[in-house]
């Protein structure tokens, strides 16, 4: 880090400069700076959702490009992910409105073989914020864990996340098992993750593919409305 950057006082930057600095700090895995900057933007009356999407998610998108291109490696990306999670921790209670009406219950988890959890955590956070009850199964979930949780929790929705082309196919194993057990139609199945698309969602028999957390919330609401209208 240069002396100039050492002297940087985050609170003296304009909003635009601060957001760009956050992208840099996320890239460099500087957790304390990210925490400080998130608090500064909130104190400047930024909406928590804007801090999340414009500063943190956009910063992680940039990290992803250089990871793909072999400029960043796993240890550096882990530091970036740690810094991102620190920022998300501050935003979580602000995104989750207290006393929001219960819209339904979702079991969500990242599929077997996959340890990426930032996107899944974001979806869980936004769903809770919108009034859903969320049971988060974490990462690396085999089909048995999903099915056991759906039954035990009497959930309405199954959410599955996958970030690898090699693990996204596992979603089909889960859905096929639900079909084999005769319980597929008891649940709304939503899937998401960077390598997926709408076509893939349809091909594996999910109800819908969700491009991002906001779409996941809207889709879940839409399907819950349909479910209630059928009753
Ligand atoms: Co990984 N990784 N990674 N990684 N990693 C990717 C996914 C990759 C695209 C990077 C790249 O090459 N550009 C690439 C996959 C390539 C491919 O499959 N085609 C990759 C690879 C190769 C790997 C390893 C194999 C690397 C290695 O070891 N050589 C390894 C695999 C480990 C494993 O899982 N078995 C690995 C490891 C890691 C880290 C551990 C270092 C770290 C994860 C840390 C963590 O999650 N705790 C990591 C990270 C951080 C990434 C990138 C850089 C960022 C992912 C992320 O958090 N994005 C990623 C590059 C990228 O995606 N551009 C990459 C931010 C997040 C907000 O977005 O997760 O897409 P996303 O979630 C979005 C939507 O997709 C959607 O909503 C979210 C919010 O808007 N969504 C859902 C997601 N899940 C949903 C579920 C829903 C609905 C919507 O349910 C209803």
The neighbouring-strand order within the major sheet is 2-1-3-4-5
Instruction: Give the mean pLDDT.
Output: 92
Q: What is the terminal separation in angstroms? A: 61 Å
Bound ligands, each once: CO-5-methoxybenzimidazolylcobamide
Q: Beta-strand level of the residues, as a percent range?
A: 5-15%
The strand count comes to: 5
Give me the Rg, rounded.
19 Å
Shape: globular
Number of helices: 10
Structure description:
The chain is an alpha/beta fold and 231 residues long. It is 57% helix and 11% strand. Helix 9 links the parallel strand 4 and strand 5. CO-5-methoxybenzimidazolylcobamide binds next to helix 4, helix 5, helix 6, strand 3 and strand 4.
Helix and strand layout, with pairings?
Layout: H1 3-6, H2 15-27, H3 31-43, H4 48-68, H5 74-95, E1 104-110, H6 118-129, E2 132-136, H7 143-153, E3 157-161, H8 170-180, E4 188-192, H9 198-203, E5 208-210, H10 213-230
Helix pairs in contact: 2-3, 2-4, 3-5, 4-5, 5-6, 6-10, 7-8
CO-5-methoxybenzimidazolylcobamide binds at residues 57, 60, 63-64, 67-68, 74, 77-78, 81, 108, 113-120, 122-123, 159-161, 163-165, 190-195, 210, 212-213, 216.
Brief sketch in words of this structure:
By secondary structure, the chain is of the alpha/beta class. Helices cover 57% and strands 11% of the residues.
């Amino acid at each position: 880090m240069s002396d100039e950057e050492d002297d940087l006082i985050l609170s003296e930057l304009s909003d635009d400069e601060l957001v760009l600095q956050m992208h840099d700090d996320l890239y460099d895995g500087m957790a304390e700076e990210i925490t400080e900057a998130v608090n500064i933007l909130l104190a400047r009356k930024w909406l928590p959702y804007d801090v999340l999407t414009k500063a943190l998610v956009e910063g992680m998108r940039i990290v992803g490009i250089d990871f793909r291109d072999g400029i960043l490696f796993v240890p550096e990306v882990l530091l970036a992910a740690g810094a991102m999670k620190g920022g998300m921790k501050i935003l979580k209670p602000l995104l989750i409105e207290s006393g929001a009406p219960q819209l339904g219950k979702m079991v969500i988890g990242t599929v077997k073989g996959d340890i990426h959890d930032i996107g899944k955590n974001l979806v869980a956070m936004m769903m809770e914020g919108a009034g859903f009850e969320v049971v988060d199964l974490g990462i690396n979930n085999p089909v048995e864990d999903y099915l056991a949780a759906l039954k035990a929790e009497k959930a309405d929705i199954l959410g599955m996340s996958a970030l690898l082309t090699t693990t996204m196919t596992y979603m089909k194993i889960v859905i096929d098992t639900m079909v084999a057990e005769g319980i597929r139609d008891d649940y709304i199945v939503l899937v998401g993750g960077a390598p997926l698309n709408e076509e893939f969602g349809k091909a594996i028999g999910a109800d819908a593919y969700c491009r991002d957390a906001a779409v996941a919330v809207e889709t879940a609401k839409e399907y819950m409305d349909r479910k209630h209208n059928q009753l």
